[in-house]
Amino acid sequence: GAGVSQSPSNKVTEKGKDVELRCDPISGHTALYWYRQSLGQGLEFLIYFQGNSAPDKSGLPSDRFSAERTGGSVSTLTIQRTQQEDSAVYLCASSSYSSGEQFFGPGTRLTVL
Amino acid sequence: RKEVEQDPGPFNVPEGATVAFNCTYSNSASQSFFWYRQDCRKEPKLLMSVYSSGNEDGRFTAQLNRASQYISLLIRDSKLSDSATYLCVVNIHTAGGTSYGKLTFGQGTILTVHP
Questions:
Q1: A106: which chain B residues are within 8 Å (Cβ-Cβ)?
Q2: Are residues A109 and A9 in contact, defined by beta-carbon separation less than 8 angstroms?
Q3: Do residues A26 and A89 touch, judged by C-beta distance below 8 A?
Q4: B104 and chain A: CB distance < 8 Å anywhere?
């Protein structure tokens, strides 16, 4: 079956612009996660959705970052007024339950000029 | 102190060698433990879960020491295809429950296996 998909695969934007990154999780997976990985760094947790529960937003670095998950499926990560330090690969993952194996999408490589 | 710490390496070993990676975690509330593998410019993929009794999957052996808050991964008979970054991953379960499922990743250990 289809894995986790993300779009766009690459995004180049100018400082100060807003960007939206999309994640389509594996069908039926109730848990969805966003991470980011800067060059040469480990993965940094951003936000976690589990079913209809309130999301865990504890990893969002600033109020410029927000995420939604509509209908318990597709998720959008929005970064407002992008800064150069936002440049990273943004990875989405989903799992069939909250402690299960997380399957990652290919990521969106964001470059802020 | 980082929640999950790994020796970043790089480890450069010849084919056939045995190599071990270590990882420590700081939060004793940690519930689940994993090793993920990440190839260059690719997404991470689960290599194996780590169980309290230790577990083996072919050439790979994972160990967990809860008392010392220490996890290890042993790779025997290294192959060229084992070259990758190995990520130590911990699931920290907070009392509130909302962080259940949130994974905390180590920085990764780079392994290069050469002919």
A1: 42-43
A2: yes
A3: no
A4: yes
Contact between chains at B102 and A95 (C-beta distance less than 8 A): no
User: Cβ contact (<8 Å) for A99 and B31?
Assistant: yes
DSSP strand pairing (A43-50 vs A31-37): antiparallel
Q: Answer whether B32 touches A (CB < 8 Å).
A: yes
Q: Residue B67: count other Cβ atoms within 10 Å of its Cβ.
A: 6
pLDDT tens, per residue, chain A with 113 residues: 589 999 999 999 999 999 999 999 999 898 999 999 998 778 999 999 988 888 989 899 999 999 999 887 999 999 999 999 999 999 999 988 766 788 999 999 999 99
Could you give phi then psi for residue B80, rounded to 5 degrees? Answer: -55, -35
Beta strand spans in B1-115 (E): 4-6, 11-14, 19-25, 30-38, 45-50, 55-57, 60-65, 70-75, 84-92, 103-105, 109-114
- Indicate yes or no: CB of A45 within 8 angstroms of CB of B103: yes
Task: Tell me: cis bond preceding B44? Omega within 30 of 0 counts.
Answer: no
Q: A64 with A78: CB under 8 angstroms?
A: no
Strands B55-57 and B60-65: antiparallel
